[in-house]
Design a protein that fits this description.
Layout lengths: L2 H10 L8 H27 L4 H19 L4 H24 L1 H8 L3 E5 L2 E2 L1 H7 L3 H10 L8 E6 L5 E5 L4
Antiparallel strand pairs: 1-2, 1-3, 3-4
Helix pairs in contact: 2-3, 2-4, 3-4, 4-5
Protein backbone atom coordinates (compact mmCIF):
# COMPACT_ATOMS: atom_id res chain seq x y z
CA UNK A 1 0.00 0.00 0.00
CA UNK A 2 1.41 3.42 -0.90
CA UNK A 3 2.00 6.22 1.58
CA UNK A 4 -0.80 8.31 0.02
CA UNK A 5 -3.25 5.43 0.33
CA UNK A 6 -2.26 4.83 3.96
CA UNK A 7 -2.66 8.52 4.75
CA UNK A 8 -6.08 8.56 3.07
CA UNK A 9 -7.21 5.54 5.12
CA UNK A 10 -5.91 7.17 8.28
CA UNK A 11 -7.88 10.34 7.59
CA UNK A 12 -11.15 8.91 6.19
CA UNK A 13 -11.04 5.39 7.60
CA UNK A 14 -10.73 2.01 6.03
CA UNK A 15 -13.01 0.57 3.38
CA UNK A 16 -14.43 -2.10 5.69
CA UNK A 17 -17.00 0.29 7.13
CA UNK A 18 -15.37 0.58 10.54
CA UNK A 19 -14.91 4.34 10.79
CA UNK A 20 -14.86 6.71 13.74
CA UNK A 21 -17.10 9.73 14.24
CA UNK A 22 -14.36 12.14 13.15
CA UNK A 23 -13.57 10.07 10.03
CA UNK A 24 -17.27 10.11 9.14
CA UNK A 25 -17.23 13.88 9.71
CA UNK A 26 -14.30 14.29 7.32
CA UNK A 27 -16.09 12.06 4.81
CA UNK A 28 -19.21 14.20 5.27
CA UNK A 29 -17.25 17.39 4.54
CA UNK A 30 -15.68 15.84 1.44
CA UNK A 31 -19.06 14.52 0.28
CA UNK A 32 -20.56 17.96 0.85
CA UNK A 33 -17.85 19.48 -1.37
CA UNK A 34 -18.52 16.90 -4.10
CA UNK A 35 -22.26 17.53 -3.74
CA UNK A 36 -21.76 21.28 -4.16
CA UNK A 37 -19.64 20.56 -7.23
CA UNK A 38 -22.40 18.35 -8.62
CA UNK A 39 -25.00 21.07 -8.08
CA UNK A 40 -22.74 23.68 -9.71
CA UNK A 41 -22.07 21.45 -12.73
CA UNK A 42 -25.67 20.29 -13.02
CA UNK A 43 -26.91 23.82 -12.17
CA UNK A 44 -30.59 24.36 -12.82
CA UNK A 45 -30.76 21.22 -14.95
CA UNK A 46 -31.06 18.99 -11.92
CA UNK A 47 -32.26 21.31 -9.24
CA UNK A 48 -34.64 23.76 -10.93
CA UNK A 49 -37.57 22.17 -12.70
CA UNK A 50 -37.15 18.43 -12.39
CA UNK A 51 -37.48 16.06 -15.33
CA UNK A 52 -37.20 12.26 -15.10
CA UNK A 53 -33.52 12.53 -16.07
CA UNK A 54 -32.93 14.98 -13.22
CA UNK A 55 -34.82 12.96 -10.63
CA UNK A 56 -32.93 9.74 -11.39
CA UNK A 57 -29.66 11.65 -11.37
CA UNK A 58 -30.37 13.21 -7.97
CA UNK A 59 -31.53 9.95 -6.39
CA UNK A 60 -28.56 7.91 -7.61
CA UNK A 61 -25.94 10.54 -6.80
CA UNK A 62 -27.50 11.12 -3.37
CA UNK A 63 -27.50 7.41 -2.67
CA UNK A 64 -23.88 7.06 -3.79
CA UNK A 65 -22.72 9.98 -1.69
CA UNK A 66 -24.50 8.74 1.43
CA UNK A 67 -22.91 5.29 1.07
CA UNK A 68 -19.47 6.87 0.73
CA UNK A 69 -20.08 9.01 3.81
CA UNK A 70 -21.20 6.15 6.06
CA UNK A 71 -18.48 3.80 4.89
CA UNK A 72 -20.82 1.18 3.44
CA UNK A 73 -19.05 1.54 0.09
CA UNK A 74 -15.41 2.23 -0.80
CA UNK A 75 -14.81 5.97 -0.56
CA UNK A 76 -12.75 6.87 -3.65
CA UNK A 77 -14.45 4.52 -6.13
CA UNK A 78 -17.86 5.76 -4.95
CA UNK A 79 -16.82 9.40 -5.30
CA UNK A 80 -15.42 8.73 -8.76
CA UNK A 81 -18.61 6.91 -9.78
CA UNK A 82 -20.66 9.90 -8.56
CA UNK A 83 -18.53 12.31 -10.59
CA UNK A 84 -18.92 10.06 -13.65
CA UNK A 85 -22.70 10.30 -13.18
CA UNK A 86 -22.42 14.10 -13.02
CA UNK A 87 -20.53 14.02 -16.33
CA UNK A 88 -23.08 11.66 -17.93
CA UNK A 89 -25.92 13.93 -16.76
CA UNK A 90 -24.19 16.98 -18.23
CA UNK A 91 -23.58 15.21 -21.57
CA UNK A 92 -27.20 13.99 -21.73
CA UNK A 93 -28.48 17.48 -20.91
CA UNK A 94 -26.37 19.03 -23.68
CA UNK A 95 -27.25 16.30 -26.17
CA UNK A 96 -30.94 16.61 -25.30
CA UNK A 97 -30.81 20.30 -26.11
CA UNK A 98 -29.46 19.42 -29.55
CA UNK A 99 -31.57 16.38 -30.49
CA UNK A 100 -35.31 16.46 -29.91
CA UNK A 101 -35.72 12.69 -30.04
CA UNK A 102 -33.21 12.26 -27.21
CA UNK A 103 -34.85 15.05 -25.24
CA UNK A 104 -38.20 13.27 -25.51
CA UNK A 105 -36.61 9.95 -24.59
CA UNK A 106 -34.86 11.10 -21.41
CA UNK A 107 -37.11 13.98 -20.31
CA UNK A 108 -40.52 13.07 -21.63
CA UNK A 109 -42.98 15.29 -23.46
CA UNK A 110 -46.01 17.42 -22.81
CA UNK A 111 -49.55 16.06 -22.69
CA UNK A 112 -52.50 18.09 -23.94
CA UNK A 113 -55.18 17.99 -21.24
CA UNK A 114 -57.69 20.47 -22.67
CA UNK A 115 -58.62 20.79 -26.34
CA UNK A 116 -60.85 23.60 -27.59
CA UNK A 117 -61.95 24.38 -24.04
CA UNK A 118 -62.97 20.79 -23.22
CA UNK A 119 -61.05 18.48 -20.88
CA UNK A 120 -59.56 15.43 -22.59
CA UNK A 121 -60.45 12.91 -19.88
CA UNK A 122 -58.55 10.07 -21.56
CA UNK A 123 -55.35 12.15 -21.69
CA UNK A 124 -55.91 13.34 -18.12
CA UNK A 125 -56.40 9.78 -16.88
CA UNK A 126 -53.31 8.57 -18.76
CA UNK A 127 -51.23 11.42 -17.25
CA UNK A 128 -52.61 10.80 -13.76
CA UNK A 129 -54.24 14.23 -13.58
CA UNK A 130 -57.63 14.47 -11.92
CA UNK A 131 -60.24 17.17 -12.28
CA UNK A 132 -59.18 18.58 -8.91
CA UNK A 133 -55.56 18.85 -10.09
CA UNK A 134 -56.65 20.69 -13.23
CA UNK A 135 -58.88 23.06 -11.25
CA UNK A 136 -56.11 23.79 -8.74
CA UNK A 137 -53.68 24.66 -11.55
CA UNK A 138 -56.34 26.86 -13.16
CA UNK A 139 -56.85 28.80 -9.92
CA UNK A 140 -53.10 29.03 -9.31
CA UNK A 141 -52.71 30.74 -12.68
CA UNK A 142 -55.63 33.12 -12.12
CA UNK A 143 -58.44 31.30 -13.94
CA UNK A 144 -61.75 30.60 -12.18
CA UNK A 145 -62.62 27.75 -14.55
CA UNK A 146 -62.10 26.53 -18.12
CA UNK A 147 -64.19 29.29 -19.70
CA UNK A 148 -61.79 31.27 -21.85
CA UNK A 149 -59.18 28.48 -21.83
CA UNK A 150 -58.55 27.06 -25.30
CA UNK A 151 -55.85 24.51 -24.42
CA UNK A 152 -54.04 23.18 -21.38
CA UNK A 153 -50.86 21.14 -21.26
CA UNK A 154 -49.12 19.08 -18.61
CA UNK A 155 -45.51 20.01 -19.30
CA UNK A 156 -42.72 17.49 -18.88
CA UNK A 157 -41.55 19.20 -15.69
CA UNK A 158 -45.00 18.75 -14.08
CA UNK A 159 -46.25 22.30 -14.57
CA UNK A 160 -49.58 22.95 -16.25
CA UNK A 161 -49.79 25.71 -18.82
CA UNK A 162 -52.93 27.27 -20.23
CA UNK A 163 -53.55 28.91 -23.59
CA UNK A 164 -56.48 31.28 -23.37
CA UNK A 165 -58.70 32.81 -26.03
CA UNK A 166 -56.92 36.11 -25.29
CA UNK A 167 -53.55 34.61 -26.29
CA UNK A 168 -54.45 34.97 -29.95
Amino acid sequence: MSDASELLHLVIGSEDGAISWWQMSIRGALIFAVGVLAVRVAASRAFGKWTPLDIIFAVIVGSNLSRAMTGSAPFMPTLIASLVLVAIHAVLALASARWGWLSFLVKGGRVQLVRNGEPDTAAMRKAGVGEGDLNMALRTQGHADLSGVRSAFLERNGDMTFITDDDG
